[in-house]
Amino acid sequence: MSDKKRQKWYHYVCHYVSHTSDLEEISRKIFSAHFGQLSIIFLWLSGMYFHGALGQEILNSNVDGGFRGIQITFEFFQIWRESGITSELQLYCTAIAALVFAALMLFSGWFQDVESMLNHDLTGLLGLGSLSWAGHQVHRSHFPSFAEGATPFFTLNWSKYEEFLTFRGGLDPVTGGLWLTDIAHHHLAIAILFLTAGHMYKTNWDIGHSLKDILEAHKGPFTGQGHKGLYEILTTSWHAQLSLNLAMSGFLTIFVAHHKHSMPPYPYLATDYGTQLSLFTNHMWIGGFLIVDRVLRHRDAIISHLNWVCIFLGFHSFGLYIHNDTMSALGRPQDMFLDTAIQLQPIFAQWIQNTHTLAPGATAPGATTSTSLTWGDGDLVAVGGKVALLPIPLGTEYFLVHHIHAFTIHVTVLILLKGVLFARSSRLIPDKANLSFCFPCDGPRRGGTCQVST
């Protein structure tokens, strides 16, 4: 098979639209593929729970002779504690349940209209899922579990629930993680929101709203017709849905990466430094891949903007350090950019910190502290002599360091994107993919990514 035929074949295999023009068939394939991926995820989870129950002590124990067990940097042990798993039998049961769900996902790949999908995802997946997890935490994760059930709810004796549905804020000083009672309260609250939102859209009956009507009725003072035509684009183009979903998924993944550090969700996670670092790196990589996926169509604009952003950040950031080095060499510390001399305070970041620190007093009177110690409120939390979290006051040094980090990150992205986005074609040499090893820096069939990527 020739190179052109092979490239064309690979393109068609991964491109549903080239197979058929039937949108419903394309949609069914994509939806089925999503459920197939869920099946694989459940299968992987089953294996992790099974191997955690079978022979895990061999890996973690001290094997003598100067050797220690394997230290894994994954959060499964913390997840098991947060889930209330206390025996190997429960791990085996969870592994079997994951296998059952993996099998169910293989038969769940159906396609529905947009409103039905929204109702299904909001109510079934998010609403009932959050409610089920809140109930699981109340009855299994908390010790002792709540034995009175729903009786206090129907008898309006809601004060009984204050024991395990709390709004304390901050971290549990024993585990170094968020209070499990706060997490249960959080899941119950968002379950109510999602269950309510799941009944908002119209399906087979005239009850509810049409998503098309909602979008077209949204007309701002500067947007003209507003969102007219957006419904048709998102419901007839899987490319539009893919780009939108990838952007949101990438943002949420990066969002989770930062919050797993500043608000540790699982017990004893904050003091497991290797696991914390691995989780942050993993989520940042995944979020970056998801966001970058659809940038090929905008590569010229991206490269041109990154060029001037890097130039600006370079002059700006290094200029501050050159100024400090010069003033230090001249013996004029009073003219340096320091908290004790010329201050460059990160006022916007400090404003965000102060907002989060003061928010509980206005929005959650029952909370004893803010959502995270990193906002600068309270004392550090230590578990077993290891620091779990401590306040991070921001000053001039953070302003300088973050600008340098911004510069290095943008330059790294510029270099990588120039190599990735222009690896197979170039305006200077359109057929460079066929030129083989003609330029320096060539990899296998790269076509010269260094000399002709400008």
From TrEMBL:
<feature type="transmembrane region" description="Helical">
    <location>
        <begin position="30"/>
        <end position="50"/>
    </location>
</feature>
<feature type="transmembrane region" description="Helical">
    <location>
        <begin position="398"/>
        <end position="417"/>
    </location>
</feature>
<dbReference type="Pfam" id="PF00223">
    <property type="entry name" value="PsaA_PsaB"/>
</dbReference>
<keyword id="KW-0472">Membrane</keyword>
<dbReference type="GO" id="GO:0009535">
    <property type="term" value="C:chloroplast thylakoid membrane"/>
</dbReference>
<keyword id="KW-1133">Transmembrane helix</keyword>
<protein>
    <recommendedName>
        <fullName>Photosystem I P700 chlorophyll a apoprotein A1</fullName>
    </recommendedName>
</protein>
<dbReference type="InterPro" id="IPR001280">
    <property type="entry name" value="PSI_PsaA/B"/>
</dbReference>
<feature type="transmembrane region" description="Helical">
    <location>
        <begin position="303"/>
        <end position="322"/>
    </location>
</feature>
<keyword id="KW-0812">Transmembrane</keyword>
<feature type="transmembrane region" description="Helical">
    <location>
        <begin position="89"/>
        <end position="111"/>
    </location>
</feature>
<dbReference type="GO" id="GO:0015979">
    <property type="term" value="P:photosynthesis"/>
</dbReference>
<dbReference type="InterPro" id="IPR036408">
    <property type="entry name" value="PSI_PsaA/B_sf"/>
</dbReference>
